[in-house]
Amino acid sequence: MTHEGYRPCTYYPVLLNLEGKEVVIVGGGRVAERKVNSLVESGAKVVVISPEVTRAIEGLSDRGKILLRRREFLPSDLDGAWLVISATDDPFTQKQVFKEASGRRLFCNVVDQPELCSFIVPSVVRRGSLCISISTGGKSPALAKGLRKRIEGDFGQHWAIYTELLGMLREMIVTSTANPEERKRICSCLADMNVADWIQGAKWQEVERWAVSIAGPRARDIVSNLRKRADVISMPHDL
């Protein structure tokens, strides 16, 4: 159900750096738990407001991973917040949280209520530093979930290794190549999808030849070290 006058909008996609920034989550159920876990992984300073919470949320509080306030929401809970998420089943609280956040010019997401959202959270596939976001603009969360599952099958854990390799090679190229145009040209050669397949098939000699041809002999050590690390990373059906 949507509020009268609500008009779907075209969202501007963005990835946020929430490291050390306070994010307030109102609610303590399973949905809130999923939000809390992803925000903790992102390095956010998470504050949960709810009289009752799941065991997992309580455990995070006990370990000092989050701040837990076991009570109903108060407007003052948004003091110092950067971002707000409401994940309760109480319509009054949902509207109150959104109203207070809007009055403070804070971005707010009320779960499953797009008319009470100034931002929405996409479905996400993560492979190390590689992050693929899927959104239908709130029109069909089920479709976004289905697409996420399909993409998860297409992009195995070897993509995390490939992305890490690109980062290391790019850093080496940037620091060793003074000419901006030459630097740009060399870096553009890194996006070779065949390399991901080689890593998946453990064809490290191919990976090494490719890396050296682009970045020079020093790339050999980078590939060697990454190969050793890959051996201890769980990548079922990949390596």
Shape: elongated
Under CATH, the homologous superfamily of the largest domain reads NAD(P)-binding Rossmann-like Domain
Total count of domains: 3
Q: What name is given to the CATH topology of the largest domain?
A: Rossmann fold
CATH architecture of the largest domain: 3-Layer(aba) Sandwich
Residue-averaged pLDDT: 91
Residue windows where pLDDT falls under 50 for at least 5 positions: 234-239
Put simply, the count of helices is 9
Rg, alpha carbons: 22 Å
Strand order of the largest sheet: 3-2-1-4-5
Give the H and E element order. EHEHEEHEEEHHHHHH
Number of strands: 7
Report, as a whole number of angstroms, the end-to-end distance. Answer: 47 Å
Helix content: 40-55%
How can the largest sheet be summarized?
Answer: 5 strands, parallel
Strand percentage lies at 5-15%
